[in-house]
Amino acid sequence: MEGWASMVTKVRRVIETYSLEGLGEELAARWVGDGYERESLRALADRFNRRVLEASMESAGLSPLDGEVDNTYRLLTDDDVSAGMETQARRRLEREGVDPETMTGDFVSHQAIHTFLTSDLEIEPPEGPSAADRLEADRETIQRLQSRLEAVTDDTIGRLDRAEELTIGSFSVLVDVQVFCEDCGQQYGIGELLAAGGCQCELSADPSEDSGVDPSNNG
């Protein structure tokens, strides 16, 4: 890998601020699949931000329990987390000596990771998208369609209401895509299904069931 270039990107600055030596090279290796399974830029950004959170907690004299960093990061960043839960997480960090405003201000986006890898470390992008990249692109496509459907529906209801062709008070439009597995009856939100990698009934299926081999028949 090439040495760091003279331009100071946000990722490089944060690495130096939090003394995260070696993290830049690890991100590069994970991006191209050198000794690791290839990861998407978004996954790398989440990995980086969790390390920033962990370093902040340790600098405050905390010893995070197993899973505590991941859960705290989820509370701070996940769109599905309520504002109240996020506020509670921020206040808890403040009580424990962590400045959540400064710390989250040092969180980076996947675009910042890309700039760091290609400009600071001068890493060539991997050839072709990884499986994680393709999955992320598909997830974003579905999210865009959901947002578009919400906007069109909101506009349509509002127009009909103004024309007095429909009667409704204040309203919100929610679009929730659910996937129902007809084999086992399990239902998933689309985001949950993509994150899980499939339905659990398929992921845990006995391979012999697919092969048509009776496991009790040994010959």
Termini Cα gap: 55 Å
Strand order of the largest sheet: 1-2
Q: Helix fraction?
A: 55-70%
Number of spatially distinct domains: 2
Overall pLDDT confidence: 87
Poorly predicted runs? 1-6, 206-213
Q: Give the amount of beta strand, in percent.
A: under 5%
Shape: globular
Number of DSSP strands?
2
Name the structural class: mainly alpha
Radius of gyration based on Cα positions: 23 Å
**Tally of separate helices:** 11
Q: From N to C, what is the helix and strand string? A: HHHHHHHHEEHHH
Describe what this molecule looks like in 3D:
InterPro entries: RdfA (IPR048925). This is Rod-determining factor RdfA. Pfam families: RdfA (PF21811). The chain has two domains: 118 residues, no CATH class; 80 residues, no CATH class. With 219 residues, it is mainly alpha-helical. The termini are far apart. It is 57% helix and 3% strand. The N terminus is likely disordered. α3 crosses α7. It has a two-stranded antiparallel sheet.
